[in-house]
Amino acid sequence: MVRLSSEELAFESLDDVLSSIGSAGARMSAIEASEGAAGNISVLYAWDTWADARFSEYWETRSPVAVPELSGAWLAVTGSGRRLREVQYSIGANVALVNVLEGGETLGVHASPSRLFERPTSELNTHLALHARHAVRSGPIHTVIHAQPLHLTFLSHMANCSDTAGMNEHVLRWHPEIIAQLNDGLGVAPFLTPGSDALMRATVELSEQHRLIVWALHGAVARVSGSVKKACDLIEYAETGARYEFMNLQCGNISSGIPISALQQLCREVGVRQTVFPD
After folding, report:
1. Angstrom distance (rounded) from CA 8 to CA 123
2. What is the pTM for the complete model shown?
3. pLDDT at 220 (0 to 100)
């Protein structure tokens, strides 16, 4: 088993990983980012491990995307059609353990007999592609969360927030914490069919510059090395900025927020290296 760094001490066992997924699902629901069965979570939690006996059902399936980089890796993944808010109450009903078999073209799926899903999330292709692109160079713990935060998704319907530059200008300008935490900004992918290869490719491309990607008219994806809570935080910071922007629109667009020049100065003074608004 890989020895975890101090940054990753919340993941000392599989139970810690599963518990963190439950907590993350509850938080996404609490901030209105996961209505019904919307949203999904995956955590790549170790490179050398084994299936937990609680997940005694097993089948193999073709991977939706070839990921030879992940050969031997294990992921905990929420099931298709499951409600994120319910994960905390029954891990077995809502989560599968997925082993990427040698070559990265086949997945070994381990699930509990109490499972309430037929397969892992329908957006598994994007999860796997993001893990393959980033987990190898990020360490043994890597998290991907897709959620549908209400205000952030609403803004993506507006012309002035429909691309990366516009979204960053309108979301990051409302208080200092947002630019400090989202110092690499938000990337915006155009509306593409959910679960499609096109959406997967656009997301992976944007992930080279951004840890949080907005799926226009659909939701957002966060990916981080380490804690599931860190991925939740990115979504929550972005949604907070979007909510400020929404309130400003409701009030007749009465404020322009913090000027970009002030955000640039703030980051210089506190030592935050931001890549959104070049000096």
Report:
1. 26
2. 0.93
3. 98
